Amino acid sequence: MDKDRIEAVLKETRSFEPPEAFRLRARVKSEEEYEAEYRRSIEDPEGYWGEIAGELEWFEPWQKVLEWNPPHAKWFTGGKTNVSYNALDRHLATWRRNKAAIVWEGEPGDTRTLTYHELHREVSRFANVLRRLGVKKGDRVTLYMPMIPEAAVAMLACARIGAVHSVVFGGFSASALAERIKDAGSEVLITADGGWRRGQVVPLKEAADEAVRETGIVKHVVVVRRTGQEVPMEPGRDHWYHELVEGVEGEAPPEPMDSEDPLFILYTSGSTGKPKGVLHTTGGYMTYTFHTARTVFDLKDDDTYWCTADVGWITGHSYIVYGPLLNGATVVMYEGAPNHPEPDRFWEIVDKHGVTVLYTAPTAIRAFMRWGEQWPMKHRLDSLRLLGTVGEPINPEAWLWYYRVIGKERCPIVDTWWQTETGGIMITTLPGAHRMKPGFAGKPFFGIAPEIVDGEGNPIREPDQGGYLVITKPWPSMLRTVWGDPERFVNQYWSQYPGKYFTGDGARRDAEGYYLILGRVDDVINISGHRLGTMEVESALVSHPAVAEAAVVARPDPIKGEAIVAFVTPVGDVEPSEALAEELKAHVVKVIGAIARPAEIRFAAALPKTRSGKIMRRLLRQIAAGQEEISGDISTLEDRSVVEQLKKGK
Ligand code: ATP
Ligand code: MG
């Protein structure tokens, strides 16, 4: 059905070859190498993933690589292993024992480095502490922490003893935390007195206390001393981390985990609705993050890798903690804001620690563009060799800025599409193998079988046709269920197109097999029977020099069905005006065509975003429709005052 397709109209034709110097040293060096390995991974997934998993250590071998009873997959059934053992102990017998595992920098500028040997000791001590507090295999432990090494230590300690961690982003409110503690049924909470953000203390313990009171189920609260202010400690319930670990033995036998035993629960960002408690298990998640981390980020032993996400997001789980440490990489971890004390903090960190691989988000890149080139220009940035992005579609303008100003046209960019539910990167270019096309995420990773379907689930085979992105084969790190809500797991992901995983995103594929993500299916706009993805209209707006950021939504329209309302944040010194609004409408028509002409442009100082930096178009939709009261879950909204300002702006 044609009407169920999403139009794909943006004509972005620029493309970039991987730099020769990069290609020569890369893990995957050519399109042909990629194709051959991809073919093998699809034709013989069990052979392929068995081989990769076999590079890691298993206490007992698996009997079967894959059992697939749609929508339920089991990987490496019968196999016994432990993720913490593979991320730490496995390296201790090698020269990596004294290699830096975590290079941490606090916002005030304090630093700490933990070698693999030291990290192993800290994790083992804390694992012993958790055991003494009565935590057993299968128990859920909630983490509510700043970006300090103890966050990674606590995750790995849980993994070591078979406890299921649920990390809640430290920027969330007490009630958001309480809701997640209750949903997971956690009796143990690990937090800190506070964390640093823009020179201020984020009072984590205060929020934690409030949440604990609200839940009534938490028996132990472990508190890391980070910011040092006075915090109330309830005797019997609250324990200082440093007191608990003192004198505790630095060896803790890892719990042998069944491959399908739960590893963690993580709640999604809530861009489209109420967050879902996504459950990941042991063997498949370990194997997939291990393989994607080294392949997509081309990790070598001399790399210094920095992912700027928070451990509270899936990106932090898979590509700060598990993936890189499974590979024995050196990981940079930073506590604070990108613009503290000045908008060049990231670039200062890159130079100071000699970062070679940098992984960040489009929302950050667009903020850096707004702050101006003068900030990165103050730094050398010559250690960088590879850049990455994740979280939202990256507009070609932002891609080109990242490529030119940060990467100096020397560093390939990987635009990695994936989700909390997928556990690891699904669609990307491989940096030494593929030509890059700004705006396109790229090709499927090994073993991943994406498809674009129409409203009835029929595959759309012709190129450049927008539709719904689904995945047709199971992969090792796919979510196993929604915690406590197996029906939602089936309804949300597997009922639209039986047997296929529904991503919730729209996409199109070009003649060379590159995927472009068009945005959320929920956000698709329907104008006179044409269904438009949000990404292309927004990219057209962002390509105008006066625009820093844009979000488009639909408003009901008596004639066209829907009309486009564009919320636009101008660049620093540009004054909004009626003339500029007209100019922007004309610009969109020029770039895409008359069909995409916004009916209305609204200028806004800021857009509503989730705490992970994604634009929440569902709120903008309500504002555009003139709704007085905003409905739906807004617990993950970053700044509530933005919504009030947007409503007043009209
Ligand atoms: P919820 O599912 O609760 O609405 P969410 O989808 O924002 O929240 P995440 O799992 O953090 O939660 O985000 C995954 C989504 O982020 C993807 O479905 C996609 O829409 C978007 N995304 C991530 N990376 C990319 C990328 N490289 N290009 C385009 N979109 C991306
Ligand atoms: Mg989602």
TrEMBL record:
<feature type="binding site">
    <location>
        <position position="544"/>
    </location>
    <ligand>
        <name>Mg(2+)</name>
    </ligand>
</feature>
<feature type="binding site">
    <location>
        <position position="528"/>
    </location>
    <ligand>
        <name>CoA</name>
    </ligand>
</feature>
<feature type="binding site">
    <location>
        <position position="315"/>
    </location>
    <ligand>
        <name>CoA</name>
    </ligand>
</feature>
<feature type="domain" description="AMP-dependent synthetase/ligase">
    <location>
        <begin position="91"/>
        <end position="475"/>
    </location>
</feature>
<keyword id="KW-0067">ATP-binding</keyword>
<dbReference type="GO" id="GO:0005524">
    <property type="term" value="F:ATP binding"/>
</dbReference>
<keyword id="KW-0436">Ligase</keyword>
<keyword id="KW-0547">Nucleotide-binding</keyword>
<dbReference type="InterPro" id="IPR042099">
    <property type="entry name" value="ANL_N_sf"/>
</dbReference>
<dbReference type="InterPro" id="IPR025110">
    <property type="entry name" value="AMP-bd_C"/>
</dbReference>
<keyword id="KW-0479">Metal-binding</keyword>
<feature type="modified residue" description="N6-acetyllysine">
    <location>
        <position position="614"/>
    </location>
</feature>
<feature type="domain" description="Acetyl-coenzyme A synthetase N-terminal">
    <location>
        <begin position="34"/>
        <end position="87"/>
    </location>
</feature>
<feature type="binding site">
    <location>
        <position position="547"/>
    </location>
    <ligand>
        <name>Mg(2+)</name>
    </ligand>
</feature>
<dbReference type="InterPro" id="IPR000873">
    <property type="entry name" value="AMP-dep_synth/lig_dom"/>
</dbReference>
<dbReference type="InterPro" id="IPR011904">
    <property type="entry name" value="Ac_CoA_lig"/>
</dbReference>
<feature type="binding site">
    <location>
        <begin position="197"/>
        <end position="200"/>
    </location>
    <ligand>
        <name>CoA</name>
    </ligand>
</feature>
<keyword id="KW-0460">Magnesium</keyword>
<dbReference type="GO" id="GO:0046872">
    <property type="term" value="F:metal ion binding"/>
</dbReference>
<dbReference type="GO" id="GO:0005829">
    <property type="term" value="C:cytosol"/>
</dbReference>
<dbReference type="InterPro" id="IPR032387">
    <property type="entry name" value="ACAS_N"/>
</dbReference>
<feature type="binding site">
    <location>
        <begin position="415"/>
        <end position="420"/>
    </location>
    <ligand>
        <name>ATP</name>
    </ligand>
</feature>
<dbReference type="GO" id="GO:0016208">
    <property type="term" value="F:AMP binding"/>
</dbReference>
<dbReference type="GO" id="GO:0003987">
    <property type="term" value="F:acetate-CoA ligase activity"/>
</dbReference>
<comment type="similarity">
    <text>Belongs to the ATP-dependent AMP-binding enzyme family.</text>
</comment>
<protein>
    <recommendedName>
        <fullName>Acetyl-coenzyme A synthetase</fullName>
        <ecNumber>6.2.1.1</ecNumber>
    </recommendedName>
</protein>
<dbReference type="InterPro" id="IPR045851">
    <property type="entry name" value="AMP-bd_C_sf"/>
</dbReference>
<feature type="binding site">
    <location>
        <position position="505"/>
    </location>
    <ligand>
        <name>ATP</name>
    </ligand>
</feature>
<feature type="binding site">
    <location>
        <begin position="391"/>
        <end position="393"/>
    </location>
    <ligand>
        <name>ATP</name>
    </ligand>
</feature>
<dbReference type="Pfam" id="PF16177">
    <property type="entry name" value="ACAS_N"/>
</dbReference>
<comment type="function">
    <text>Catalyzes the conversion of acetate into acetyl-CoA (AcCoA), an essential intermediate at the junction of anabolic and catabolic pathways. AcsA undergoes a two-step reaction. In the first half reaction, AcsA combines acetate with ATP to form acetyl-adenylate (AcAMP) intermediate. In the second half reaction, it can then transfer the acetyl group from AcAMP to the sulfhydryl group of CoA, forming the product AcCoA.</text>
</comment>
<feature type="binding site">
    <location>
        <position position="520"/>
    </location>
    <ligand>
        <name>ATP</name>
    </ligand>
</feature>
<dbReference type="InterPro" id="IPR020845">
    <property type="entry name" value="AMP-binding_CS"/>
</dbReference>
<feature type="binding site">
    <location>
        <position position="531"/>
    </location>
    <ligand>
        <name>ATP</name>
    </ligand>
</feature>
<feature type="binding site">
    <location>
        <position position="542"/>
    </location>
    <ligand>
        <name>Mg(2+)</name>
    </ligand>
</feature>
<keyword id="KW-0007">Acetylation</keyword>
<feature type="binding site">
    <location>
        <position position="339"/>
    </location>
    <ligand>
        <name>CoA</name>
    </ligand>
</feature>
<dbReference type="Pfam" id="PF00501">
    <property type="entry name" value="AMP-binding"/>
</dbReference>
<dbReference type="Pfam" id="PF13193">
    <property type="entry name" value="AMP-binding_C"/>
</dbReference>
<feature type="domain" description="AMP-binding enzyme C-terminal">
    <location>
        <begin position="536"/>
        <end position="614"/>
    </location>
</feature>
<dbReference type="GO" id="GO:0019427">
    <property type="term" value="P:acetyl-CoA biosynthetic process from acetate"/>
</dbReference>
